[in-house]
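INTERNAL AUDIT FORM
Audit reference: QA-55
Scope: verify that the stored structure record matches its stored sequence.
Auditor: D.O.
Record contents follow.
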Amino acid sequence: MPPSSADNQSVRSAHSPFPADFLWGVATAAYQVEGGWQADGKGLSVWDVYTNTDRMAAKGETANVALNMYDRGQYLQDIALLKDLGVNAYRFSLNWPRILPEGTGAPNVAGIAYYRQLIADLKTAGIAPLVTLYHWELPQALAERGGWANREIVGWFRHYAGVVFDALGRDVALFLALNEPSTDLSFAAYAKQFRETPRREWVPLTPLPPAAFTWFPGQRVVHHQQLAAAAAIEEFRKRNLPGRIAAVAMLLIPALPATDSAADAEAARLADGLMNRIYLDPMLKGSYPDDVVAALRGAGVELPVEPGDMEFISQNRADFLGVNFYSGFPFAADPAATDNWGLRMTWSPSPADPYNGPARPDLFTAGLLRLKADYANPPMIVTENGTGVPGDDELVGGHVHDAKRTDYLVSHVAALGEALREGANVEGYFHWSSHDNFEWVAGYGRRFGLIHVDFATQRRMPKHSAFIYRTLIANGGRVPA
């Protein structure tokens, strides 16, 4: 089990801020890597429909095969690669309709058996599993009943979590309920827009998932996500399980004022509220931020908080916080914007820029220290951090020298080390991702992995960044001169 804050402080040395038992990991998500989309009684997820029916991903691609990790022979080879990488932890998600094909009801025995075997194989290799209950694999059957907009999903998710904990809870030390709730909402909004566009053409999302905050009006999902995560935590604790659980892996997006003007400062604060504080405050402070509630109310939106809800969320506080970090963005006031809360993101990406925004390791340090200062320094695990850059993953002469990813990795591990030196209570770091995989609406056109994958042949090959990550792990977060 990851060390406590006191243990962390006791084992850090002057040479490295990373304790000897720090979690060094890599991460994936079920839909992006498993394949086996109709195997052994699995039900449909919304992403099966987005890609197979709506053809929403680039070039009409699907993850029906993906990296073929539903096949044990294949994933055993991948576990061997992870072991050679030197990681001691692996974060992956469960595909909800693989376990409950209709989202509720009786479990699918074959689906549970697959995950039980995967967990056993990881542990045999000396790799600890961090299991995410939900990484956007919403059962299509539940989407047709309103999905996250239906308050009944709190009960549906509670039932699903209970099935998982009964089957796997004593074999897993770390669970996480929801991954990046805000991004999940953005993809759902994108799917709705895609279906309503007459030409139904794929248009890439901007690097900032909630680039337009119009998904808030009329939506009831933010509060339902909070309640569902709290319900999962309650189910976990009812069983007296030996591990720990997080409510969310939070997509932390620092919002910067574009200029020194008071208007831009206020715009950045509202952007921060819509992206960050609306999730962090209920979990860690017990209430929604007043300025965000006022902004929503001004737009005619009321969060559907019922009597007892906030007490329930507060009573089921997580054991740690998952933090996903990629970049931060500047915001300016834009009074002319009628559909974007008077906000304008002023960073304009060029074709050579990283897919998820500019490399800002300084904001990584600042973001973690902000959580320390504003939220009483909760135990944290960096559940995602990484990058993809056009042209960085070219296979040349049997090698991939992904220099930009390597630079990003080294600088962000150093930034994490600085946050640790300044007292941030961070227990682990998971690189996104272990492998190149299916990147949602971008299909197979964007690569984020340390391991190169030939999607036609399923051949794997570690990139230069993989060898550097192994060096960082072996040397306490440093690359020896």
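Auditor finding: record pair retrieved intact. Residues 1-14, 207-212 have pLDDT under 50 and may be disordered.
Action required: none
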